Amino acid sequence: HSVESGFFQWSAPSNIALVKYWGKKDNQIPANPSVSFTLNNCKTITKLAFAKKNISTALNVTANNFSFDLLFEGQPKEDFKPKIQKFLERIEIYLPFLKDYHFTIDTENTFPHSSGIASSASGMAALAMNLMSLEKALNPEMTEDYFYQKASLLARLGSGSACRSVKGQVVVWGNHANISESSDLFGVEFPRAIHANFTNFQDTILLVDKGEKQVSSTLGHDLMHNHPFAERRFAQAHENLNQLIAIFESGNLDEFIKIVESEALTLHAMMMTSMPYFILMKPNTLEIINAIWKFRNETKIPVCFTLDAGANVHVLYPENVSEKVLQFIQNELVGYCQNGQYICDKIGNGAVLI
Ligand code: PMV
C-alpha cells in the first residue's frame, strides 16, 4: 500500500487517576497498576498532516531522520520538539514507516495554557491516535481492538498516564490479578459494569498554583527507585485497586472516598519521604482539603478530593449533588484558587476522530 499525503485529526482527553501510577521500570512499564476516570472537557486536539518524502530524500542518509514541524495554537513551537523527537525514536520500532513521511503536527488544548493541568496525557494520546490512523491507512485489515490497544501502547511510550486517555470512562493500566484483561503495556476499559452512582461523575479542577511543575514526573518516578517505602506502596496500590473493583460494582461512595483521598495523600507522602524530598502542596491546597472535609462532615454530601503531582485539587462528586457542591465551591473554595480559576469537567469517553 502506498499512502502519499493527507491528514487526520483526533481529540484526546486528559484523565485523573484514582489509584496513582508513581514509579516505573524500563520502557515505561509501571511499578504498580493504576485506574483513572477519563475526563470529558480537558482535551488536546491534534491535526497530523503527512506527506511521503520523495525517493531521493528518503534515500539520502543524512536526511534520513524524522522530519516534522510542530505548531501549537497555530504558531511554531520549537521547545516542544525534543519531546516529540524522543517519542518518535521510542515508537519507531512499532511504526517502521515514520521516516518515510514529513509530518506537520498542529495541536491545541481546550484548557488554558500553563493552567497547571498537565497536557502530556491528552497530547501524547492525541498524537498516538493520529499515527495509528496512518498505520491503519497502510494496513486496512487491522481490527478495532488492535487499533486501540496499539494506540494506547504508543501513548504510554510518550507519557505513561497517556495510555489511560485513549478509552473511557474508567481505565485500568497495569497487570492486576483480579482483572484478567489488564496489561502493563496499555490501558483497558474497566471490563465490568459500573454502578450508576458513577454515571456522569463530576470533576471540578481547582487551579491553586499555575506555575511550572516543581518536579517533573520523570524525576518523580525515578525517586521511587531506592525509596524506603516503595515495595509497600506498590503492594498497597494492588490492594486499593482491588477494593475499587468492588466499589465500582456496589456504588459505595463512602468507601470510594476513603480509597481515593488516601491514594492522593499517599502520592504526596511518597514525594515527601523520597531523597531528595518535595512538598508539592501549597497552603491553599490544605485549606481546600480541610474545607472539603468540614463540608462533607456537616452535609454528608459524598464529595472528595484527589491530587496530581502538584498543588491543584480535583473535586470529585456524583452528578446528583452537583448544584450543592458547585455552590460550596463558589462560596468557599474559589477564594483559594489563583485568579479564582477552576475548570468544570466530568467523566468522559476517550479519544475521538474528528
Ligand atoms: O504520565 P506521567 O509520567 O506524567 O505520570 C503521571 C503520574 C501522576 O499523574 C502523578 C499519577 C497518575 O497515575 O496519573
Automatic annotation (TrEMBL):
Keyword Repeat: no
Gene3D superfamilies: 3.30.230.10, GHMP kinase, C-terminal domain
Listed GO MF terms: ATP binding; carboxy-lyase activity
GO BP annotations listed: isoprenoid biosynthetic process
Occurrences of domain Mvd1 C-terminal (ranges): 205-333
Sequence ranges assigned to domain Diphosphomevalonate decarboxylase-like N-terminal in this UniProt record: 12-181
Superkingdom of this protein's organism: Bacteria
UniProt KW keywords: ATP-binding, Lipid biosynthesis, Lipid metabolism, Lyase, Nucleotide-binding
Database matches in InterPro entries: GHMP_kinase_C_sf, Mev_decarb, MVD-like_N, Mvd1_C, Ribosomal_Su5_D2-typ_SF, Ribsml_uS5_D2-typ_fold_subgr
SUPFAM superfamilies recorded: GHMP Kinase, C-terminal domain, Ribosomal protein S5 domain 2-like
Keyword Lipid biosynthesis listed: yes
Name the UniProt record assigns to this protein: Diphosphomevalonate decarboxylase
